[in-house]
Specification:
Blueprint: E1 2-8, H1 14-28, E2 32-35, H2 38-44, H3 55-76, E3 82-86, H4 98-107, H5 112-117, E4 121-125, H6 128-131, H7 148-162, E5 168-171, H8 177-192, E6 204-207, H9 225-230, E7 236-239, H10 241-244, E8 254-256, E9 262-264, H11 271-288, E10 292-295, E11 306-308, E12 316-318, H12 322-329, E13 333-336, H13 337-343
Helix pairs in contact: 1-8, 3-4, 8-11, 11-12
C-alpha cells in the first residue's frame, strides 16, 4: 500500500489531471482509493475562511477532515492498493504562519514530522499563474478565491510547505495540458512500480555524453549510434549527474572507493557532488516521467554493471554508479550503453570509450 499526495497551486489543473489518473488506473486494473480535497468540500458546504473566525480555525477544520478521510481510506485499502490524496495535511501550512500551523496540527493530535511521514510521495503541479497569469481563471472552481498574483504566491508557499518531504517532486507547466497530466501518470507509474500506468512511450533518461554532449571528465563525449537512433522513436532526456552536482568540465576523473566514497585522482572527496547529482537526475527523471534510463557503463555516476575499483589502475569490478543505483532503487529501469548496443547488434565500444565519465 502506498499513499500519494497530489498537490499544486490554484489553477494547476490538478483536478483534471487526477481525472486522467483515475481513468488510467481503472483501465489497467490497479486498485486505488481517491480522497477528495478537504478544503474544497468545506468551502462548497459553507465552511470557508470568510465564515470562520480566522484562517487558523478554517485550516484546523481542514486538517481534521483530511485525517478523517485518510483513516477511512486506510481502513478500506489493502494489499497493493494506492491511496491518492487530493492535497495533504501540509497544504495547510501554505496559509498559516509556522506557529499557527503547529497549533492546527496539535489541535488534531499530530506534529509536523508525523504530517510529512503519512505520505510515501508527493507530486506538486505548478499553477498556471506562475508562468501564464493571463490564463489564470477562477471560473472553473467555485472554491477558488485567489487572484492570479495571489495564486502565484500560494503556489510557492505550497512548494515550501512540502519541500522537507524526502520524496517531493514538482511537475512544471507544459505547452499542452495533456502533457502535464501524462507527466503525473508517468511519475506515479515510476514511483508505484506500475509501468502500465504510463500511456504511450515514456521519455527515456540518457547520459548526455552518449548523445554527443562534451560533458565527460576529459571534456569529450562518447556518442552512441544506438542511443542517437532512439531519438527518432521516443523523447530522450539528457543528463550529466556530475555536472548537475556542480563539478566542472573538464575535471579530474573520479572513482568509487571500497567504503562508498567517491574520490578524484587528486584524492579530493567528491562524494557530496556525486550524491547531489544523483538526486537531481532522479528529480529530472520523475519530472519528465522517465520509466527507463540508458546510462554510460563504467562511470562512477552512471555505471550499471561495472565501475572502476577506486585505485585509478584501469581495473573494472562489478558495481553501480551513484546515479544508476539511486534510479534503480527508485523503480526506474536502468540499462547501459553496452546493453543497448548488444540489443541493436552492435559491437561493444572500444576500451578507450569506456573510461570513467
Amino acid at each position: 500500500m502506498k499513499v500519494i499526495a497530489i498537490t499544486g497551486g490554484p489553477c494547476a489543473g490538478k483536478t483534471s489531471a487526477m481525472d486522467v489518473l483515475h481513468e488510467r488506473l481503472g483501465n489497467v486494473g490497479v486498485p486505488a482509493v481517491f480522497i477528495p480535497e478537504a478544503a474544497t468540500e468545506l468551502i462548497l458546504s459553507g465552511v470557508a475562511p470568510w465564515t470562520c473566525a480566522s484562517m487558523l480555525e478554517f485550516q484546523t477544520r481542514v486538517i481534521a477532515l483530511q485525517l478523517e478521510r485518510e483513516a477511512a481510506a486506510h481502513a478500506q485499502a489493502c494489499g497493493d492498493t494506492l491511496i491518492i490524496c487530493d492535497r495533504g495535511l501540509c497544504d495547510s501550512r501554505a496559509y498559516l504562519t509556522d506557529e499557527e500551523y503547529r497549533e492546527a496540527l496539535g489541535a488534531n493530535g499530530i506534529d509536523q514530522a508525523q504530517a510529512l511521514a503519512r505520505y510515501d510521495a508527493v507530486f506538486h503541479l505548478d499553477s498556471i499563474a506562475k508562468d501564464r497569469p493571463e490564463a489564470y481563471t477562477k471560473d472553473n472552481n467555485g472554491a477558488r478565491f485567489e487572484s492570479a498574483e495571489e495564486a502565484a504566491l500560494v503556489n510557492e508557499r505550497v512548494v515550501a510547505a512540502w519541500s522537507a518531504h524526502p520524496n517531493f517532486h514538482v511537475l512544471a507547466n507544459r505547452p499542452v495540458f495533456s502533457e502535464k497530466a501524462e507527466a503525473l501518470c508517468w511519475a506515479i507509474a515510476c514511483h508505484a512500480g506500475v509501468p502500465e500506468l504510463a500511456g504511450g512511450d515514456a521519455p527515456v533518461l540518457v547520459s548526455a555524453c552518449l548523445l554527443g554532449e562534451p560533458c565527460r571528465y576529459d571534456g569529450r563525449s562518447v556518442p552512441s549510434e544506438a542511443v542517437i537512433e532512439m531519438a527518432h522513436r521516443c523523447k530522450l532526456v539528457p543528463v550529466c549527474p556530475e555536472v548537475l552536482g556542480g563539478l566542472p568540465t573538464p575535471r579530474n576523473p573520479s572513482e568509487i572507493q571500497t567504503d562508498g566514497r567517491v574520490l578524484d585522482a587528486a584524492g579530493i572527496d567528491r562524494t557530496a557532488a556525486f550524491e547531489v547529482g544523483a538526486r537531481e537526475a532522479l528529480c529530472l527523471a520523475r519530472d519528465h516521467g522517465c520509466m527507463r534510463a540508458i546510462l554510460k557503463e563504467n562511470s562512477p555516476s552512471c555505471g550499471v554493471r561495472r565501475v572502476y575499483d577506486g585505485t585509478f589502475s584501469g581495473t573494472l569490478v562489478p558495481g553501480m554508479g551513484k546515479t544508476a543505483a539511486l534510479l534503480a532503487a527508485s523503480g526506474i529501469e536502468v540499462l547501459s550503453d553496452v546493453d543497448l548496443q548488444a540489443k541493436a547488434g552492435e559491437n561493444p565500444p572500444a576500451r578507450n570509450a569506456e573510461a570513467s565519465a
